[in-house]
Amino acid sequence: MASEGGATAYIVHHLTNEAVGEGFWTVHLDTLFFSWVLGAVFILFFKSVAEKATAGTPGLAQNFAEMLVEFVDTQVKDSFHGRSDLIAPLALTIFCWVFLWNSMDLLPIDLLPTISDLIGMSYMRDVPSTDLNSTLALSISVFFLIFFYSIKVKGFWGFAKEMTCTPFGPKLMPFNLLLKTVEELAKPISLGLRLFGNLYAGELVFILIALLPPLIQPLLGFPWAVFHILVITLQAFIFMVLTIVYLSLACEDH
Amino acid sequence: MSINATLIGQMITFTLLVWFTMKYVWPPIMAALEERKTKIAEGLAAAEKGQESIKLAEKKAVGVIKEAKEQSAEIIASAHKRANDLIEESKAQAQKETERLLEAARAQIEQERLQARESLRKDVSTLALRAAEQILKEEIDKAKHQELLSRTAKQLG
After folding, report:
1. What is the pLDDT of residues A2-35, one digit of tens each?
2. Residue ranges in A53-172 assigned as alpha helix (H)
3. Domain residue limits at A96
4. Number of compact structural domains in chain A
């Protein structure tokens, strides 16, 4: 596969998004497309289950959906002690959507780019979570929710007090504010970068394996793919759990 | 690797997905789960109740059977007694009847005997009279010896 322009060109080609627009107003079409498709898969599956949900003996699809729902619900109940109709569905959406994003990584690295070549697109990145825009979009949304819940639960002055008077008391107000701001900003950034970093690295390793001689590829590709099954699940799980934890921290009054 | 408008697009998609999940996915599935939970709990409670009532019914049945056995034994005993009584009664009645019949027979026999004796006495006296008449045709005066004859007849009876 490293025929046109050598290994570097191959790697760069694989790490470039199909985009339109200029500057900030660039839009990664491949990222958006696969996110929407996977989002639709998630929504359609759960919607069809929810419509037919019965308290009697569940079918295969309902069983699977219920397993996920109960799994997420347990996680939420373990960490989040307030009452909220948003947190649990949010966590379910994050877990499923991120997992579907990540699972695209298990498709053969050249499958979708080759197909997109045939329909005349020059670039194709099929794993939305290897696009920093996707992961940061999630983590910044979560950041807004943290902000929203902090003010909702503690009130504006309560939130302001927490930002300025902890952890060192009112005398060190500017220092506190700086520290807390960094702390709050670190949450979305670390959340988004962790997912991005893990999946980007995984993708890169797949690309590098694809550059090896064909006979050695399965020897390395297979173990890495098996390991990656764990990674993609774990990263989706971590993103979900940290979201729940951050939101429960935001809702806790000190 | 640049941050750009894709981020905004992804945020909008994310918001829509979360909204949809919150509105149309989570509540019905949770409701179904809750309903099943209650159903199972109810079923278990009903099963326990049923088992208890079976136990109760068994106990009751044992009591009823025992009572029935006692009653039947009582009935049999009283029937035996009644039968014995009947036998005794009929025996006594039969005895009485026999005695009565015997008595009647005896009385009749006595009566008949008396009648026979009376008629015999009459006949004998007549016969004796006739015989005496035959023998003593000539010299016997009927009126004169009447008293003697009847005394004889009395001695015969």
Report:
1. 455 688 888 888 888 888 888 888 889 889 999 9
2. 60-79, 87-103, 111-118, 132-165
3. 2-251
4. 1
